[in-house]
Design a protein that fits this description.
The complex is a heterodimer of chains A (182) and B (223).
Chain A: H1 5-71, H2 73-81, H3 87-101, E1 108-116, E2 122-134, H4 136-149, E3 153-162, E4 170-181
Antiparallel strand pairs in A: 1-2, 2-4, 3-4
Chain B: H1 9-19, H2 22-94, H3 99-109, E1 114-122, E2 131-141, H4 145-163, E3 167-183, E4 186-200, H5 211-222
Antiparallel strand pairs in B: 1-2, 2-4, 3-4
Classes of the chains: A alpha+beta (182), B alpha+beta (223).
């Protein structure tokens, strides 16, 4: 079959139009769509794990929120047990009252040093407690109660010396540190 | 059999030629391809639209959950700090050296033939120190006062050893005295002594080896 000149022209023109249409189709219709789909897909891939992590985070915090009151009860109790105000004002009378309640009438408390504690919100103070006249057993019992009743106090040193005046009594010095609110 | 004369022969030939016209066929083919492309476009459009909808929904979810997650993270940090502080406080309290039991052990161990004139005890200085030092001075009175002092030293060492891991003791001084005491109606010679006890009150802190050394050691062990 032989094509006529007119037909060849038509076919050529059609081919050109077809190529132009194909280019327009891919460039202006299909590519933007696919690009937008690709962006949305990558967004989905990124957001999915983020949302999952966020849900895990919220659940973890909720779980921690349930456990925290038990875990921090001791700390809160201890914090509440520390009186407000300057420790130099309340600590020596507190010790005097404590030893008096344990049968030791006289004791003197002096501040030795003061330093920051690694625990935030606290500072450590070192005190020297001088008990001029005390029986060994009474002193031992007082120390026992002090250690059990006052968890924030740590006795750093104990010194007991016999007195020359009365062999029944001793002279004792305690050095202890305690945590107070900073 | 009747004879048929086809008077439309030429018309039919033209119709066949028209149907077989390559231009027409090409146009039909192009039309089919175009229809295919249009269908494909709508399929892709639909798919893209669905993905976009899902993405928009997820973006909404994320916008709703992100502030909550940030707040949760901040709250978690706060709670963890509180728990760590509480744990540190408990550790602080638990790691104290309780002196009352030590004094009780001394009281139980020292016999009436020995009079203590000084007792000094110090807790470990810092967190790295594990030993506490106990100094005891006194006067022993017995027919053999030096032996009596030695008995007190060994008895105290044994007694303290029941409570602490490692106890060592040494006499700082042990001197015969020219003074005598009356005990139970007997006149006994005396000796003045001073002894020191080193008591391990904490476990030594074991420092983990650096990761490189550890890995090297494990590799060497495997070989």
């Amino acid at each position: 079959m032989k094509l006529e000149q007119e037909q060849i022209k038509k076919i050529g023109l059609s081919a050109v139009v077809l190529v132009a249409l194909l280019w327009g189709y891919f460039a202006f219709m299909l590519d933007p769509l696919e690009k937008s789909e690709k962006d949305a897909t990558s967004g989905l891939a990124a957001l999915g794990p983020q949302i999952a992590d966020a849900k895990v985070q919220i659940a973890k915090t909720a779980d921690l929120e349930k456990k925290a009151p038990v875990a921090t009860a001791f700390l809160n109790r201890v914090k509440n047990s520390i009186p407000d105000g300057a420790p130099i004002a309340w600590f020596p009378p507190k010790m005097a009252d404590f030893f008096k309640s344990r049968g030791i009438d006289k004791c003197t408390t002096h501040l030795v040093s003061e330093s920051a504690d690694p625990m935030p919100g606290f500072k450590r103070m070192v005190w020297s407690i001088d008990v001029p006249k005390v029986e060994f057993i009474t002193l031992g019992l007082a120390i026992c109660h002090l250690e059990n009743d006052e968890p924030l106090m740590n006795i750093l040193s104990v010194s007991v010396d016999a007195t020359r005046e009365d062999a029944q009594y001793q002279h004792a010095t305690l050095v202890l540190s305690t945590l107070v609110k900073s | 059999m009747p004879l048929h004369v086809n008077l439309y022969h030429e018309v039919q030939q033209q119709e066949i030629a028209r149907q077989r016209d390559p231009v027409r066929l090409a146009m039909l083919a192009v039309l089919l391809v175009m229809i295919g492309f249009v269908v494909n476009y709508f399929i892709v459009l639909e798919r893209s639209h669905m993905v976009s909808i899902r993405y928009t929904v997820l973006q909404g979810d994320w916008a709703a959950i992100e502030p909550k997650a940030k707040d949760a993270k901040a709250r978690q940090d706060e709670l963890e700090a509180e728990i760590a502080a509480s744990d540190a406080m408990v550790k602080n309290v638990d790691s104290r050296l309780y002196w009352a039991p030590v004094l009780d052990q001394i009281l139980q161990t020292v016999p009436r033939t020995v009079q203590l004139i000084h007792l000094g005890a110090e807790a470990p200085g810092d967190e790295k120190s594990i030993n506490s030092i106990l100094e005891i001075s006194g006067i022993s009175s017995a027919p053999e006062p030096r032996k009596e002092a030695e008995n007190v030293r060994t008895a105290l060492e044994t007694k303290l050893g029941t409570k602490f891991k490692h106890v060592s003791s040494v006499f700082k001084t042990l001197d015969d005295s020219d003074q005598y005491v009356m005990l139970d109606g007997r006149r006994l010679p005396t000796a003045a002594f001073s002894m020191e006890f080193q008591v391990q009150v904490r476990d030594p802190v074991v420092v983990a080896p650096p990761p490189v050394l550890k890995a090297r050691r494990e590799a060497g062990g495997a070989e």
